[in-house]
Amino acid sequence: MHIARTGRGVAAATSVAALAVTALANAAPAAVPHTLAVPAVVGHTLAHHVSSPLSNAQCQAKWQINCYTPLQYRTAYDLNALYRKGVTGKGRTIVIVDSYGSPTVQHDLDVYSKQFGLPSTKVKVVKWGHVPAFDPKNSDMTGWAGETTLDVEMAHAVAPAAKIVVVETAVSETEGTTGLPEMMDAEKYLIDHNVGDVISQSFGATENTFPGFAKGDFSSIKKLRYAFQDADRKHVTVLAASGDGGATDLKADGKTYYNKRVNSWPSSDPLVTSIGGTQLHLNDKGARIKPDSVYNDYGSGGGGQSHVFTRPSFQNGVKSKVGTRRGTPDISMSAAVDGGAWIYSSFDPTATGWDVSGGTSEATPLFSGIVALADQAAGHRLGNIQKRLYDLYSAHSKLTGIVDVNDGTNNSYQGVTGYKAVNGYDLATGVGTVDALRFVPALAKQKP
User: Fold this and answer.
1) Are 191 and 227 in contact (CB under 8 A)?
2) How far, in Å, CA of 393 to CA of 40, rounded?
3) Is pLDDT at 24 greater than 50 in this prediction?
4) Distance (Å, rounded) from C-alpha 126 to C-alpha 5?
5) DSSP 351
6) C-beta atoms surrounding 379 within 10 Å
7) For residue 233, what are the β-bridge partners?
């Protein structure tokens, strides 16, 4: 089984800074399959050692893509008015789970924040298990370090006053163990110890690759749900990227795609809010020059029907779209590489600087920031937001802050026909995207 780090990147990045960490260890439950977590392909590298973010026009001239700063995202998602009201994520904690992590995550966030005039924040790093020393020559480690960087900087961009906890899990190619069980153990430990209000997961494994799937035995997935069940009881929101393979996804080799529609876990889990991807079309100030499209360039926003989980009650209102199965995604944020986010990293001393990154692993931490803002606005954790989200959607009102994505673009990918963005819920973008000024208070006030 292959666990993909769901993300795509363009350009390059990366010096050295040490972090104090807390060491924790725990054993995975017996009879749960151990899998090797491997980052997804990072996409096309178009430039190295970019010393500072370029303008949108420069990105178009050099690479034929649009590239956006957090200041543009803040305008696009109507966040600035919330900040002026004091809704900044203060008092809330976002937990980010990534294998290996990055040894320079605090330094890089500080540089990123300074570049854009944002206040930085303290990143607490938790090592789960015997995390090996970081090796910048190890492509698996640098792939996950890039993911960690993207996750932290995107969450911070939306919720600048929220606390961030990065959980580094000890995935090791040499030992060939670990993967999802270790990640779930780490999440459950933090939930049980009251650490975190929202958990952001930028990884996934195709349902079909789990042991027993071909025989209709889904126990290997269902035995891994204990962290999410715990989160549901403790009112912690859990998010997961819907993936970058459109309506298909990777086989167990981590390189080739299924030639049919498939889905991925944990995004497909009904206890998890699945975050899909859009493409933003912005001017230099962050105003839209046309409505959002489906993310479909160097990857494509994951979406479709789960083959493991049946339709949960919160999706009864969209049963004409999802049928009898759990449908993903639930909601979407920026993910296209053409319209990707500037990030700064320095974990690789041979490639220090600025990148443009995308993927649903960008969208997921962006939405974790939205949840942190809503938690602050509510004055308490919102927990599993699924019923709230779909009840807001069913109101069909602009006052909810849910913005439909319906321009007819699709998430077809690798020759597998996907789904179109049409009026209302669809299996390309879920209920759509958000206008945070309306969505955050509406979500906070909505009954669970």
Assistant:
1) yes
2) 32
3) no
4) 19
5) S
6) 8
7) none
Contact 243, 207 (CB under 8 A): no
What local confidence, expressed as pLDDT, does residue 49 receive?
Answer: 63
pLDDT above 90 coverage of the chain, percent: 80
Torsion angle (degrees, nearest 10) of CA 248, 251, 256, 261: -20
Q: Which two tokens stand for residue 215?
A: 């025989």
Residue closest to 182 by CA, chosen among 40, 6, 360, 24: 24
Mark residue 137 as left, alpha or beta (left: phi above 0; alpha: psi -120 to 50; beta: remaining): alpha
Question: Residue 448's closest CA among 201, 232, 267?
Answer: 232
Instruction: State how beta strands 433-434 and 402-403 pair.
Output: antiparallel
H helix intervals, 20-99: 56-63, 70-76, 80-84
Crossing angle (nearest 10°) for helices 386-394 and 436-445: 120
Q: In a 3-state reduction of DSSP, which class is residue 372?
A: helix
Non-local (6+) Cβ contacts of 233 within 8 A are none
Tell me how far apart the alpha carbons of residues 256 and 411 are, in angstroms, rounded to a whole number.
17
SS (H, E, C) 124-167: EEEEECCCCCCCCCCHHHHHHHHHHHHHHHHHHHHCCCCEEEEE
**pLDDT score recorded for residue 274:** 98
Per-residue CA distances from 167 to 138, 271, 377 (Å): 19, 20, 26
Closest CA to 157 of 70, 95, 222: 70
CB 205 within 8 A of CB 180: yes
For residues 200-213, give the mean pLDDT.
92
**Measured between alpha carbons, how far is residue 236 from residues 189, 190, 223, 368, 380 in Å?**
13, 10, 20, 12, 10
- For the chain, the first-to-last Cα distance in angstroms comes to 35
Lowest mean pLDDT among 30-34, 68-72, 341-345, 380-384: 30-34
Q: How many CA atoms lie within 13 A of 118 on its CB side?
A: 26
Does residue 439 register a pLDDT over 60? yes
Q: Which residues pair with 333 in a beta bridge?
A: 277
Q: What is the pLDDT of residue 178?
A: 44
Task: Report DSSP state, residue 64.
Answer: S
Q: Inform me whether the pLDDT recorded for 5 exceeds 80.
A: no
